[in-house]
Write a structure and sequence with these properties.
By secondary structure, the chain is mainly β. Helix content is 5%, strand content 37%.
Length: 705
């Protein structure tokens, strides 16, 4: 027999739990054992004893140590109310779990398996209103729902109404029948399946031969007032919903539909839920029908429509697990507004944006609740946009909102087309409205196949042509807000801007695949475009913009047919063009020419300073000058560090060694500008803006060698 050693006054349960260091008088724990039967039957309760032994094998007695279960849905450990100071284990669901206890830094474990019971009768039938709490036990099954069933608290009652369905239960549902929770009142369905296949609670058609859509599905429409509720919300834990998705009026068909209500303080929890073979969607979340943040990955398979279908304001807590064989293997996000700050997490499937989505309103849906909110998008997320859709941020004065795109170089955030064969102009791009929060961040992202009409026009002075681009800014953004972003395959610009002071640093550290339409404001003159000496990577071609002896570059533009004359293809008031080349941060233009006739569509190489300018054109700011200053050795090292993925070096390199230039062509209502012979940029802008009818521009970067 092992000798028992008394536990001295210093040996408390807390000391065991954290593994206190031994003193000369403390016994050193050598082993911890958890004693209980290795197999239990569902609903069985049994005592749990923790035995602690020293290094010599002698038993240490004293205050019991706490015990944890790795799967509380299978075995729950609690204090035994009939035996103070002792613990008991309750078999809550069929499956496996591991109980653990720690004493003196030593961990003890015990594996426990819970088995399903055998039904003892022919089963039970349920239908109609359930207005009192009840439990559907596995041993009483199978359970058959013969007609529509609604779990509902009676009017005037404050008593909780819950239907609890035990692990291992089989629920068969008649054709065309629905199971509704709440119906606008506080009620709950608690499905407590276990983590083994036999321990799950299964909802399926009563006729095994019936296919998808045999029954309607689970409709969760319970109402929980803000400020708390008197009962736990609905839980679907290790449940399987098969063959649902039947028609239910105008509501979208689904295996599980969450409706909820505005102002709910608690939300249902979906844990290990499986939806299979729905004739509609797998899981639908309505405008007020969200799920809790403690929900875990759900499996959706073989549904005819999308795996998930959600209002934009309820997407944040979705955790998509295995998703296959559905009409759309994605999280479908329908038209609507994100009205609360949220984060869209990376999941096993992409997000499919099937309608216009706004952050902060547009249209404004919930008055008084659309102020100062952010939508964060996690690294690795892919958003696929349906034809003609767009994402808008901050389009309402009363709805300040922002976007935080938090990609990494290894896992960028991708905004792309949902088409099987994507093409330029498939979707309308991402729009930052005039009330977007300027601290929005776009980091390590890909924007592609945008440029479709997006409902935005006139913010650049052109009320005829929409802002067509992958990304549209109608407001200013903070420095370093756009970094590591790729813009490609746009039907319009990579980035378009409206009446903003969008700085040239948006060009630094980002890649444009269409350099002639990299950054710009569209012109009211249809098809007016500008070409400049820009390389395929969006940088200026060598020796074309600065340095001693460099000749002015060739620049050309296109005007609409039938011809480049006033009144034939663009507004009659346009009398001339102005060409301006400006460098970010410079006080004077790098080159400026005005008085260009509307019949002129190009300037040849070396036109500046040689008398080769078109008749009537005046060179306000002579072309040329030294390249932007910068220490070559330092720039070379900073670039090497940046290539080695040192973010700080990249920012310093872009700040010190990369300069942005913009070629701008203005269509103006004047023969010449009212400026002096050598105006500053501020003076040029003051003369240009009042007479400008449209702008076409392109941008590029110049790296100091």
């Amino acid at each position: 027999m092992r000798q028992r050693r008394p536990l001295a006054i210093w040996a408390t349960a807390a000391c065991f739990a954290v593994g206190c260091a031994a003193s000369p008088t403390q016994p050193i724990v050598g082993k911890v054992e958890i004693v209980l039967p290795p197999q239990l039957q569902l609903e069985q309760a049994t005592a749990v004893e923790v035995q602690i032994f020293d290094a010599e094998g002698a038993r240490i007695v004293g205050t019991p140590v706490g015990v944890k279960s790795s799967e509380p849905s299978v075995v729950r450990v609690e204090n035994d109310p009939s035996k103070p100071g002792q613990l008991r284990a309750i078999a809550a669901g069929a499956g496996q779990t591991v109980l653990s206890a720690v004493a003196g830094g030593v961990r003890g474990e015990a594996k426990v398996t819970v088995r399903c019971p055998q039904p003892t009768g022919k089963g039970l039938t349920h239908s109609g209103l359930v207005t009192r709490s009840e439990t559907w036990r596995a041993v009483d099954g199978p359970h058959h729902v013969a007609a529509d069933l609604t779990i509902q608290r009676p009017a005037g009652s404050s008593a909780p109404v819950e239907v609890t369905i035990q692990s291992c239960s089989q629920v068969t549902v008649a054709k065309g029948v629905s199971i509704t929770v709440g119906g606008g009142t506080a009620a709950a369905l608690r499905v407590l399946g276990g983590n083994s296949p036999e321990g799950r609670v299964v909802f399926q058609p009563a006729d095994a031969g019936q296919g998808p859509g045999s029954w309607v599905g689970l409709i969760l429409s319970e109402r929980y007032p803000a400020g708390g509720t008197e009962q736990d919300p609905t839980t679907l834990q290790h449940a399987v919903v098969r063959g649902a998705g039947g028609s239910h009026g105008s509501d979208p068909a689904a295996g599980v539909r969450v409706e909820g209500n505005e102002g709910s303080s608690t939300l249902p929890t979906l844990t290990g839920l499986v939806v299979d073979g729905s004739a509609g969607h797998g899981i639908v979340l309505s405008q007020f029908g969200g799920i809790s943040s403690t929900s875990t990955a759900c499996e959706v398979t073989n549904c005819r429509l999308s795996a998930w279908r959600s209002h934009p304001d309820q997407v944040g807590n979705i955790v998509a697990g295995k998703t296959s064989g559905n009409g759309v293997d994605a999280i479908e996000v329908v038209a609507g507004a994100v009205a609360h700050s949220a984060k869209w997490n990376v999941t096993a499937v992409p997000y499919f944006i099937s309608g216009n989505v706004s952050v902060g309103g547009w249209p404004r849906e919930i008055p008084g609740r659309l102020l100062d909110l952010f939508l964060a998008i996690d690294a690795g997320v892919t958003l696929k946009f349906a034809k003609g859709t767009r994402l808008a941020i901050g389009m309402e004065r009363s709805a300040r909102s922002g976007l935080l795109v938090q990609g990494t170089t290894e896992a960028p955030v991708t905004f792309t087309s949902a088409q099987a064969q994507p093409a330029k102009g498939d979707w309308g791009g991402v729009i930052f409205g005039r009330y977007a929060i300027p601290t929005s961040v776009l980091r390590n992202a890909i924007f592609e196949y945008g440029g479709a009409p997006n409902g935005v026009a006139g913010f650049d002075g052109d009320y005829e042509q929409p802002e067509l681009a992958n990304l549209v800014f109608l407001t200013s953004i903070a420095r370093s807000s756009v970094t590591g972003v790729k813009f490609r395959h746009s039907a319009g610009y990579g980035v378009a801007r409206g009446f903003t002071d969008l700085n040239d640093y948006v060009l630094m550290g980002n890649l444009f695949d269409a350099p002639t339409l990299a950054l710009g404001t569209q012109s009211p003159i249809t098809s007016l475009t500008l070409s400049a000496p820009i390389a395929a990577d969006g940088s200026l071609k060598p020796n074309t913009i600065c340095g001693e002896g460099v000749k002015s570059p060739a620049v050309e533009w296109k005007v609409p047919t039938p011809g480049p004359t006033a009144g034939k293809g663009f507004p009659e008031k346009v009398k001339s063009f102005v060409l301006l080349v400006r460098q970010a941060g410079a006080e004077k233009a790098h080159w400026a020419v005005h008085g260009l006739s509307t019949k002129v569509t190009a300037l040849a190489v070396d036109a500046a300073g040689t008398g080769k300018l078109p008749e009537g054109a005046v060179e306000l700011v002579p072309f040329g000058g030294a390249c932007p200053a910068g220490p070559p050795a330092t720039c070379k090292q900073l670039k090497a560090d940046c290539t080695a993925a040192k973010l700080g070096s990249c920012l310093e390199y872009e700040k010190s060694c990369v300069k942005a230039f913009r070629f701008e062509l203005y269509a103006v209502e004047a023969d010449k500008l009212a400026v002096g012979a050598s105006p500053s940029l501020a003076e040029l802008d003051a003369a240009l803006l009042p007479v400008t009818r449209g702008i076409a521009d392109v941008s590029a970067t110049f790296e100091i060698p």
